[in-house]
Design goal:
Chain B: Keywords: Ligase. The complex is a heterodimer of chains A (530) and B (344). Chain A is an alpha+beta fold. In chain A, 36% of the residues lie in helices and 24% in strands. In chain A, strands 3, 4, 5, 6, 7, 8 and 9 form a 7-stranded mixed sheet that branches. Chain B has helices spanning 50-60, 149-162, 177-187, 201-209, 225-228, 263-268, 283-292, 305-314, 336-341; strands at residues 4-7, 10-13, 18-20, 28-30, 45-48, 68-71, 77-80, 83-89, 97-103, 106-110, 132-137, 168-171, 194-196, 217-219, 232-235, 252-256, 273-275, 297-303, 318-321. Chain B is globular, with a radius of gyration of 20 Å. The chains are: A alpha+beta (530), B alpha/beta (344).
Chain lengths: 530, 344
C-alpha cells in the first residue's frame, strides 16, 4: 500500500504526461503481482465496492475524534477521506506494523459483509501512515481521481514491455483484475492472452487534419468522401460473449445507451462496427448538446430515452462473424458493410452515405454550404486503405469546415498548468451588451490554445502589465485587448451568465489593431450563430 | 495574569515597559526571532539574541534594526523595572527565542514561533515551566501532524533519482527553512552543490558565521541552464512557479512547508512535489508543550486559536485567544506582487 499511496500522490500533483508515464513504469517494474494489477484496475476504473459509504468513514472517525475538532478540520481540508486520513491516529502507537497490501485490501473488500467492514477498515487505518490511509479510503469509496487515465496507465504498461497500447486494448476487455496474464505477456514470460469470444475493444483508425495539405496532388478517383458527423465516435461490438458500446478511447459507455445495447442483443450477427453516435430528431442528428445530456447520465431515465433517442451512423465494419476485415481495402469493407446492413437493416442505425464528387473544388463548395446541425465537415478516405489502428498520416483526412469566429475582449486570465504554470495562458473573454449601468462585457467562454509560443509570451506580458484585480490565481485585466476567437459551434447554455457557450474556442488572432470598444456585441452574436 | 496585556502595538509587559514582537515602532522591543512579521524595523531599543540581531541587521540594515541593540544570549538574565527577563531556545530558526519573564513570583513565557522537532540549524526548544504560557497556533488542527523531515527529504532524493535530468526547484523561506533543508540534505548524505536563488545567499552566509556548516553552495541565477540539470535549486516560494523558474531545465516544482499536508493547498500552489517540512509545532507538539509547561493559563496569539483553546479546555487548561493581528501564516500571504518583483 505504501508504494501505491506514493504513486497516487505523485500522479495527483504531476501535470506532465511523460512524467506520469515514467512514474507508472517505475511502479509496474518495482511492484509484484497481484498488487500492480490491482493498481492498474483502480486507475482504469475497473474496481468498485458498493458496501463502504462515506457515512461509514465519518462515523468511524467520529468515534475517535472530538466532534468539534473534526468539524473544524473537515471544514479546513474540504475532503472527507483526506480529513479522516490525516486525523486518524494509528501508526505512532504501532510503529512496527506495516500497512495492508493493496491486494489484501481489494480482496477483503470484495468478500467482507457490510456489517464487518467498519472493524476491518479501522484495523487497516490503525496500522497505516497518513498517505496509505488516504489511498485506502479513496479506494473503498471509489473516488480515486488519480490524475491518470486508463489509457495513460495502459500506455505506461505497454512501454514497460515491447507491445503497443493498442495491442493491450485488444485483449483488455477480456481480462479481469489483477491482470496477471497481461503482465506475464508484457514482461515476455507468457504468450499474448487470448480474449476468445469476449467483446473486446478494437483500437480505432483516426484521421489527420487536412490543414496545410496540398489537395492538387491528390487524384480524386483514389478517394472517397463522407460527412464528418458531429457526435462521438463509437464502436459497437457484438460477440458470443456479449455486447458493448465503446468510445474511441475504449471507455465502455453501454450503461448510458441501453437503447443501443438492446438492439445489439437482438442482432442476429456477430460484428464490430465503427460509427458516429448521435442523438436523433426524427431522421436528423440533434445538436451536440442533446448528446451531451445522454453522456452525462450514468443510466438514463425513460423520458430521456424517449426524447433523446440514440442512433448510429455507420462508417465501417471491422469484424463480421469472426472474420477480421481490417486488412481489406476501404472499398471492400464498404461493400461488406452495405451488404450486411441491407441483410439485417438494424433499427436506429443508418449508413453514413458516400458523397459522389468529380473534383475537390466541388467538394470544398459542398463542405462550406453544409451548415446543418450535426455536420462538422468532410472525411476523405483512400479507397484502398486498410483499417489501421491509430492515426496514420496519409490514408484518412478530416476536412473540417472553416471555424466560425468572433471578436471578443479579454476579461480575466489565469495561470496554466505544468510547463505553462508561470504563464497566464487561460483567457476568459466576453462580448458587449447593454447592462443596467450602461455598456458592459459579459463572458462567453474561455480559451487556452490556438496561439504560438511567441504570442503566449506577448499575452502573458500583456496580462501582467494590465492587471486591475487579483482573485487567487486569476487576474482581472483592463478591458483593452481584442482576441479573435475561433470556434466550431455556438449553443445556448444555462451555465454562463451570457446564456451562450462555444464549442472548442481557441485564440485565432490577437487583434491589437482593434479598439476594444469595437469588439462584437452579444445580441449580434446570438442573431448570427444561434 | 494582569501585568501582560495585548495592546494594538503587540503584547506589552506593563511593569517592564517593553513590547514583545511589536507590529509598530516602539521605545523598547523584545524580539523572538528574525522573521519579518515578528522583527520589524524602527524600534528605539531592541533586545534579542545575538543571532536575531545579526539577522535583523542583515535584513533591514544596521540603522533600522534598532537604535540601541542589546544582545541577550540564551539563559542570560537582565532585570527591567523589577521584571527579570531571559531568553530560552524556541527551536524555530537560528536565534529564535521564547521570552521568559518573572515578576512578583509569577512567570510568563511567550513562545514566539516554535517547533519541537529536531533541527540541525538551531538550538532545540526548551520547556520552561511557567504560570502563563503564550503560544502560537499556526498548525492548530488535528489534521496537522508533521512527518519525519528525513522521510520528506528521501522523497525529494528518490524523485531526483527517477528524473535525473530535471532541475528540482524547492520553494522555501529565506530564513530558517532554506538552511534547514540544506542541513537535512547534508545529513542524508547529499554532497553535491546546492544551488541558490539570489535572495537566499546572504542568509546562508550569515548562518555559516553562526557555525552552521552548509557545504558547497552555488548561485543559480548566474548558472547555465545545463549546469542546473539534475540539481537542487532553492528559491523563495514566490519565485518557484513564476518567471524566475523559466530559466530552469524542465523544473520539478517543490515546496517545503507544513501547509503541504493538505492536498488542496499544494494543488492551488501548482506544486508538483510537496514536501511537508515545517518550522512550527504541529498539533501534537502544541498540546504536549502547553501541558509540559504546567501553565494553568494559555494565551493563543496567532493561527487557529479556537481549535487549540477547545482542546486545552478538554484537558482542564484555561485558554484565551489574543487575536493579535499582523502575524502572517507562513507561505500564505506572500503576494504575487512580490513574485513579480523578485526577478533576481
Amino acid at each position: 500500500m505504501i508504494a501505491f499511496a506514493a504513486l497516487l500522490e505523485r500522479l495527483a500533483f504531476t501535470p506532465s504526461r511523460n512524467t506520469k508515464i515514467a512514474l507508472l513504469k517505475n511502479y509496474f517494474a518495482e511492484t509484484p503481482d497481484p498488487d500492480r494489477g490491482y493498481a492498474l484496475a483502480a486507475m482504469a476504473g475497473a474496481l468498485s465496492f458498493t458496501a463502504a459509504k462515506p457515512a461509514m468513514l465519518r462515523a468511524l472517525a467520529m468515534e475517535r475524534t472530538d466532534p468539534e475538532l473534526f468539524a473544524w478540520s473537515y471544514d479546513y481540508v474540504g475532503d472527507l477521506a483526506e480529513t479522516v486520513a490525516l486525523i486518524w491516529r494509528g501508526r505512532a502507537e504501532r510503529p512496527n506494523s506495516l500497512p495492508p497490501g493493496l491486494a489484501e485490501v481489494v480482496e477483503a473488500l470484495k468478500t467482507t459483509p457490510k456489517a464487518d467492514l467498519p472493524e476491518l477498515v479501522a484495523g487497516w487505518l490503525d496500522i497505516s501512515d497518513s498517505s496509505s490511509r488516504y489511498a485506502i479510503l479513496k479506494l473503498i469509496t471509489g473516488s480515486l481521481r488519480v490524475g491518470a487515465s486508463a489509457r495513460l496507465a495502459k500506455t505506461a504498461l505497454a512501454e514497460s514491455g515491447s507491445v503497443t497500447p493498442d495491442e493491450i486494448e485488444e485483449v483488455w476487455h477480456g481480462l479481469e483484475p489483477p491482470y496477471t496474464p497481461l503482465f506475464a505477456w508484457i514482461s515476455g514470460h507468457a504468450p499474448r492472452p487470448d480474449p476468445k469470444d469476449a467483446p473486446v475493444f478494437r483500437p480505432p483508425m483516426l484521421a489527420q487534419s487536412l490543414e496545410g495539405v496540398d489537395l492538387t496532388t491528390f487524384n480524386p478517383s483514389d478517394w472517397r468522401a463522407e460527412w464528418k458527423w458531429d457526435g462521438i465516435r463509437a464502436q459497437l461490438v457484438k460477440t458470443l460473449g456479449g455486447e458493448r458500446v465503446y468510445t474511441r478511447t475504449a471507455e465502455d459507455i453501454g450503461h448510458a445507451f441501453p437503447d443501443l445495447l438492446e438492439i445489439l442483443t437482438d442482432l442476429d450477427s456477430h460484428v464490430v462496427l465503427d460509427g458516429e453516435l448521435l442523438v436523433m430528431q426524427g431522421d436528423e442528428p440533434a445538436p451536440f448538446a442533446d448528446l451531451q445530456q445522454r453522456l452525462n447520465r450514468k443510466s438514463p431515465a425513460r423520458t430521456m430515452l424517449r426524447d433523446r433517442p440514440a442512433g448510429v451512423r455507420l462508417y465501417d465494419i471491422l469484424f463480421e462473424d469472426g472474420e477480421d476485415l481490417r486488412n481489406l481495402p476501404f472499398d471492400a469493407r464498404r461493400k461488406r458493410l452495405e451488404t450486411w446492413f441491407a441483410r439485417l437493416s438494424p433499427p436506429r442505425m443508418t449508413l453514413s452515405e458516400l458523397i459522389p464528387f468529380e473534383n475537390f473544388s466541388e467538394l470544398a463548395a459542398l463542405r462550406e454550404s453544409a451548415r446543418s446541425e450535426g455536420i462538422e465537415g468532410l472525411m476523405l478516405k483512400r479507397a484502398d486503405s486498410p483499417y489501421v489502428p491509430g492515426r496514420p498520416r496519409g490514408p484518412w483526412w478530416k476536412w473540417k469546415r472553416e471555424p466560425l469566429t468572433v471578436d471578443a475582449v479579454m476579461m480575466y486570465a489565469q495561470r496554466g498548468h505544468g510547463k505553462r504554470s508561470s504563464f497566464y495562458s487561460d483567457y476568459t473573454f466576453g462580448l458587449w451588451r447593454e447592462g443596467e449601468n450602461g455598456r458592459e462585457l459579459v463572458p462567453i467562454g474561455k480559451a487556452y490554445s490556438g496561439f504560438t509560443d511567441e504570442e503566449l509570451k506577448f499575452l502573458d506580458r500583456w496580462v501582467r502589465a494590465h492587471t486591475t484585480a487579483r482573485f487567487g490565481p486569476v487576474r482581472e485585466v483592463e478591458q483593452g485587448l481584442v482576441l479573435e476567437i475561433a470556434f466550431d459551434a455556438a449553443q445556448y447554455s444555462k451555465r454562463h451568465k451570457s446564456g451562450v457557450a462555444l464549442r472548442f474556442p481557441r485564440v485565432a488572432r490577437i487583434r491589437t489593431d482593434k479598439p476594444a470598444a469595437e469588439a462584437d456585441e452579444l445580441d449580434e452574436f446570438v442573431r448570427t450563430f444561434l | 495574569m494582569d501585568w501582560l496585556a495585548p495592546e494594538p502595538e503587540g503584547l506589552f509587559c506593563i511593569p517592564g515597559g517593553f513590547y514583545i514582537d511589536p507590529l509598530r515602532p516602539v521605545a523598547c522591543a523584545v524580539i523572538s526571532h528574525g522573521h519579518s512579521d515578528h522583527a520589524r524595523p524602527g524600534h528605539r531599543r531592541v533586545i534579542a539574541t545575538p543571532e536575531t540581531l545579526a539577522i535583523m541587521r542583515l535584513r533591514m540594515g544596521d540603522d533600522r534594526a534598532g537604535d540601541v541593540q542589546q544582545p541577550l544570549a540564551y539563559g542570560e538574565e537582565i532585570t527591567i523595572n523589577g521584571v527579570t527577563l531571559r531568553l530560552a531556545p524556541a527551536g524555530h530558526v537560528a536565534g529564535s527565542a521564547q521570552i521568559v519573564m518573572d515578576y512578583e513570583g509569577q512567570r510568563a513565557v511567550v513562545s514566539g514561533d516554535y517547533k519541537r522537532a529536531p533541527d540541525p540549524t538551531c538550538e532545540p526548544f526548551q520547556v520552561v515551566p511557567c504560570d502563563l504560557f503564550v503560544t502560537e497556533a499556526t498548525f492548530a488542527l488535528p489534521v496537522f501532524r508533521h512527518p519525519d523531515p528525513a522521510h520528506e527529504i528521501a522523497k525529494l532524493l528518490h524523485n531526483l533519482r527517477l528524473f535525473p535530468d530535471r532541475t528540482h526547484v524547492v520553494g522555501c523561506y529565506a530564513l530558517g527553512k532554506c538552511q534547514r533543508l540544506i542541513a537535512l540534505l547534508r545529513q542524508s548524505g547529499y554532497d553535491r552543490p546546492v544551488w541558490l536563488h539570489g535572495a537566499l545567499i546572504s542568509m546562508c552566509a550569515l548562518y555559516e558565521t553562526f557555525g552552521i556548516p552548509l557545504g558547497e553552495l552555488k548561485q543559480a541565477t548566474v548558472a547555465e541552464k545545463a549546469e542546473l540539470r539534475g540539481g537542487i535549486v532553492l528559491a523563495p516560494p514566490s519565485a518557484i512557479a513564476d518567471r524566475w523558474a523559466r530559466r530552469l531545465a524542465d523544473p520539478v516544482v517543490c515546496l517545503a512547508s507544513g501547509w503541504m499536508q493538505v492536498r488542496q493547498r499544494a494543488k492551488a500552489r501548482g506544486v508538483e512535489l510537496p514536501l511537508i517540512i515545517s518550522d512550527h509545532a504541529d498539533w501534537d507538539a502544541l498540546l504536549k508543550t502547553c501541558e509540559e509547561t504546567g501553565a494553568s493559563e494559555v494565551w493563543v496569539t496567532h493561527g487557529r486559536e479556537e481549535a487549540l483553546i477547545h482542546a486545552l479546555g478538554l484537558r482542564g487548561i484555561k485558554g484565551r485567544a489574543l487575536r493579535l493581528v499582523g502575524y502572517e501564516e507562513e507561505d500564505e500571504t506572500e503576494s504575487e506582487t512580490e513574485a513579480d518583483e523578485v526577478t533576481a
